[in-house]
Amino acid sequence: MHRNQRMEPIAEIIRRVLSRKGLEKGIKEAEVLGKWPQIAGTVLANHAEAVAIEKGILFLRVMDSAWRNELSLLSEELIKKINDDFGEKRVNRIHLI
Hints:
Layout: H1 10-20, H2 24-40, H3 42-47, E1 48-54, E2 57-62, H4 65-86, E3 93-96
Helix pairs in contact: 2-4
């Protein structure tokens, strides 16, 4: 390797390859699922599990009706928090299951 060449982080190489294959959207969706506990907070994440994201819809499995009601009231705030955290629109709706 020449001294003026910089080493590229493996994560960037993988992201570029997957993007060329049309798989970058799936990675972005998986990042939302993976970061759900940090975004939602421990208490909320313990009562609502992020199970899938499809076409901008985040599917949350809610453990009981009281938390389902709470999440329905917080959904707009959570959507904003998720999108702000990633710096782009990744979720446009939350569906409670």
